[in-house]
Amino acid sequence: MSDRDSDVIAADARARIFEPGYRTYRGVRLGVAHSVWTLARHTAERILGLKRPARYKVLPFAAILIAYLPAIAFIGIVALIPNGLQRLPNLIPGPGRYYGFITAAIVLFAALAAPEALCPDKRSHFLGLYLSSPLNRSTYLLAKAIAVIGVLLLVTLGPPLLLVVGLALQNDGPRSFGAFMETLGQILAAGLSLSLMFGALSLAIPSLTDRRGIASAGSLLLILGSTAITNVIAFGVHGPRNVLALSLGRLPFELALRIFGLNGLSTRFRGGLGSPNGSPLSTVVVVAASVGVTLVAAAVTWWRVVGTEVTR
Amino acid sequence: MTVVDDTTLEVRQLSKWFGSVVALSDLTFDIGPGVTALLGPNGAGKSTLFRVLCGLANPTQGTVRIFGEDPRANPALTRRIGIAPQQDQLFEHYTIVDFVGLAARLHHLSDPTASALRAIEIVDLDPGDSRPLSAYSKGMRQRVKLAQAIVNDPDLLVLDEPLEGLDPRQRLGAIELFRSLGDAGKTVIVSSHVLDEVERFGSRILVINQGRLAAEGPFSAIRDLMDDRPRHLRVGTDRPPTLAAGLLISGVVTSARVNDGWIEVETGDAPAFRRSVAAIARNCEVRLTEVRALDDDLESVFAYLLGPR
Amino acid sequence: MTATAVPSTARTLWSVLVRSIVTRVRVVGLGLLGAGAIALGVAVHLSNAANRPDAAWSLVDSYGLSLLIPVVALMFASAALGDLAEDGTLVYLWLRPVPRYQLALAAVAASVTVVVPVALIPLLVGAAISGGGFRLIGATAAGGMLATVAYSAVFCGLGLRVRRALAWGLAYLLIWEQAVARVSHGAARVSLFISTRSVAAYLARRSPPHNAVAWTTGLILPLVVAFAAVVVTTRSLNRGEIS
Fold this sequence. Notes:
By secondary structure, chain B is an alpha/beta fold. Helices cover about 35% and strands about 25% of the residues of chain B. Chain C contains ten helices and no strands. Chain C has helices at about 5-20, 25-45, 50-85, 90-95, 100-130, 135-160, 165-185, 185-190, 190-205, 215-240. Chain C is globular, with a radius of gyration of 18 Å.
């Protein structure tokens, strides 16, 4: 007997008539994990503007393109003028220094992605619909975080990966298999750390509002404003240099550099943290600040989403 | 196209499309003083038509002339136009006097406050209400929109679903207002779904469906033109089965159904039926008490124009 | 329309638009940013006197002209006509016998009216408190006012023409102004960001920013851009579709 047979109101050997009204679903239910994955996938599609008119794809794909362009350019340079590179050894950056070329793209992408994930649900009152499914607030937030972090990996993991693979194909990457795998591991760790940090930071502001534009502007102001303020305090006022650890626009990139064994001072890296007295911040401070900022931002987001009152 | 004296609005081969979606297709009509109702189902293109008529949107093809001028090219023409749009949003933080007074000031009226107060009283709202418009109900907001539309005493008034949200008493008041404006020589265009109230406007209708003009003119005249459809009538008599048989035998009706003491007949030639029903009743020796058309109303006309033929 | 009606209409429009863009969330949120300029000014004032001129300049250049004024102008200016177009209330201003250029100018004026007290004045106060001197205050006023007017004009038009004006404005500020113009001399020549900072640096007798333009270019470009933006906005109001 199939699961539809209970909806049959009349039947004989030749025909059946089914209940014309509402019929409950009696099939297999795939569980919370599937719900989380479905919502995460749908959110990622929304962030990238997929399955929507072309104008919704312009900004996200422009940011993604800007993130990949330098890698494509560097690979092209190596391919076209391999011998010239011997005279300009620092021309092609390693994957760690590569982030310095795409900081704006990553920050912009994060500021646009997270509001797209959270704000429309609140504004359209769709959150109530999600919560009437197997999802609760925590699993709903988990799905959103997976989507945002996953999408951010496109710009934090993909471009340096492309660079290393492209250079390796030109015989200009890590010299041994071990070195190559080590570099891959560093890229993975750096990309993930950047995505986690920017994902947490950029989700915190949209959790406070249902307007995407205000959330994007707020995220950007938080990230850039903290950088400007800490720069003034550390370099202008010569305050405590550890305040630079609160430079939210630079801290994630400094952490990424430390994963590669570099720092913002040694590389004169535009995106990393400088220091007013010539010596870089200790790695412990950088890691602690990174973890702390991420946890605080995540806590704010969780507290707001859990506390949101759904009226309809 | 029907002839209209003293044309206020001239539309010629008007089309409007958005990408691949055709919102309006080849509309040609004139509108003059009096009340004209614009009817059509949801998505027919009524609001789009209103926006094009007022110059809020560009026609993709064709022309619109208000008092002989292009509304897009001449902002000064807006002195003579008032519009109450369909969307609900107003300047939410304003009071009613502020909002209607703003309209009066932007129209450069000599005494904006007095004009605003007058318009507010006409729509039966309280000028002394100090609440922001955000606190107003749907019906009150509709009347606020109406007040700002009439504050400059426009010659052309365009009202998109103005009866929506009004209670029955307010609707009657609004209809009376539209009729009085029409009688005063203003051109009033009203869109509505409330067919029985549109009938009370007592004037022309424009029926639009899927972006095309389905009919124009007084609805009774439109009805009279629909001679490819049989008419339904109800006949009252003391012996319905006898009269029904007589009508069928005479051939003036195509069907007859006895129902609760009445006969409901269908005829392809209403005038011939009316001429002969009395004689048939006499021949059948039955008493005739009533002959009434069942489909001579706007709803029937509307359903016919929009339904499959 | 009489001669006296013109300023009256413009004033009315300006008043409506100011009321429309001043919301509690915007003022409080962005006001905190402005307050940050004052707090930084205090911090600079309390710092070592030898560092004060550099720190004060850093406050004005890195915080005020690079972040505070552009973002605050974006938030208010994009809403001046953009909010009205989005919620359908622009019709209540547009379908009136009002020249379209007055509506465009009123929107820019409304944005400037709000950006000045929320962003520019706190920045001036911060510059004054920091002890950078009258020259710095004058430079901040000039550069800040140029930036306020130019960004307000550009973002008013942006708000009218595109739906997600804030997102596009942020992308413009972050990618074009802060990234491309910093590295490309050609782009710097047409960058409001570089122009206003060049003017402020010239007046404050400070080192010009990277890719700086001549102070005359820096003075003229924002004004030309503002004028062009108002023309484009007027044209959009004349020819565009009003929801």
